[in-house]
């Protein structure tokens, strides 16, 4: 086995998950980034010796909407605190009969229909193209699946998460369109989050927690926030138990991801070194430092 690194696990808590318990030596840390402010301070701590960084995606008190989230600042801040692996916890609507409220889905694909968000750290002055063919980390998915099995929580491995812009929920025609595309769940936040994690060479996986049947199901009312919150409150302890179950499975020093999640920039930069803008490179110090400092 080649070089190994000690993982630092980042947890992004979605709707209903604004804190996690059971960590030792905790501190809420304010992190400045070249992309602006993250959603909130980040909670650093340890669980059974494993370093953990928690970020409430919408901020404590749920202050920021999916469109207004500063996804770049969130991922950059996690990278600056040394995070190597991100577990994203998200509330979603179900687009399939067999995925009822209370069910957990370990997502393996996304369709990105968001349109009003900054989606890349790269651009004029330093252009890069990373692969998103396989957007989530298989190793993290394995650990999540084992943990859900151990906890005997109802779950499905694999499924496509449709990312809508929001903040309004879908129309019936949209919901049915996404169903006809074979999508499993719908939410508003996991893109560009997963794209930016890939650009920042951080392994990423999502556990989607089903809260509703969106608006397509004839036997269920169209989704409302109070319905989502009700299911989430019932799910929050399960999500926290899942975190405690999964962390020890991820704590051993590990080699670089066999599928390239954390070496995604090795062949991604296309702007020649002499054409790169130094001001842009300065902003990329955290997310692309590994490759920029090598060339
Ligand atoms: C409160 S329902 C809509 C809201 O919940 C999901 O957020 P998250 O992924 O952070 O759990 C969904 O994407 C919407 O942002
Ligand atoms: N039906 C739904 N649509 C979009 N985001 C959601 N988050 C939870 N339920 C949702």
UniProtKB/TrEMBL annotation:
This is S-methyl-5'-thioadenosine phosphorylase. Substrate binds at residues 188, 212-214. Residues 9-247 form the Nucleoside phosphorylase domain. Belongs to the PNP/MTAP phosphorylase family. MTAP subfamily. Its EC number is 2.4.2.28. Homohexamer. Dimer of a homotrimer. The keyword Isomerase does not apply. Phosphate binds at residues 15, 57-58, 90-91, 189. Keywords: Glycosyltransferase, Purine salvage, Transferase. Pfam families: PNP_UDP_1. It comes from Acidocella aminolytica 101 = DSM 11237. GO terms for biological process: L-methionine salvage from methylthioadenosine; purine ribonucleoside salvage. It comes from the Bacteria.
């Amino acid at each position: 086995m080649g070089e190994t690194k000690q993982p630092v696990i980042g947890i992004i808590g979605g709707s209903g998950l604004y804190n996690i318990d059971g960590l030792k030596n905790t501190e809420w840390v304010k992190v400045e980034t070249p992309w602006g402010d993250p959603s909130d301070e980040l909670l650093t701590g340890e669980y059974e010796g494993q370093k953990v960084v928690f970020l409430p995606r919408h901020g404590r008190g749920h202050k920021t909407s999916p469109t207004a989230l500063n996804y770049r600042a969130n991922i950059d801040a996690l990278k600056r605190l040394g995070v190597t692996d991100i577990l994203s916890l998200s509330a979603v609507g179900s687009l399939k009969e067999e995925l009822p409220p209370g069910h957990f889905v370990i997502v393996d694909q996304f369709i990105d229909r968001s349109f009003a968000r900054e989606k890349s750290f790269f651009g004029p002055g330093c252009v890069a193209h990373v692969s998103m063919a396989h957007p989530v980390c298989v190793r993290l998915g394995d650990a999540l699946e084992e943990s859900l099995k151990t906890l005997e929580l109802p779950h499905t491995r694999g499924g496509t998460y449709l990312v809508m812009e929001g903040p309004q929920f879908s129309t019936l025609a949209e919901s049915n369109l996404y169903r006809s595309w074979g999508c499993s769940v719908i939410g508003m936040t996991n893109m560009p989050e997963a794209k930016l994690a890939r650009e920042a060479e951080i392994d990423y996986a999502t556990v989607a927690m089903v809260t509703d049947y969106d608006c397509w199901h004839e036997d269920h009312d169209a989704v409302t926030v109070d319905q989502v919150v009700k299911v989430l409150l019932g799910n929050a302890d399960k999500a926290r138990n899942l975190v405690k179950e999964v962390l020890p499975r991820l704590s051993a020093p590990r080699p670089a991801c066999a599928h390239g999640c954390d070496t995604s920039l090795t062949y991604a930069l296309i702007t020649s070194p002499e054409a790169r803008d130094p001001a842009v490179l300065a902003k990329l110090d955290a997310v692309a430092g590994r490759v920029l400092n090598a060339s």
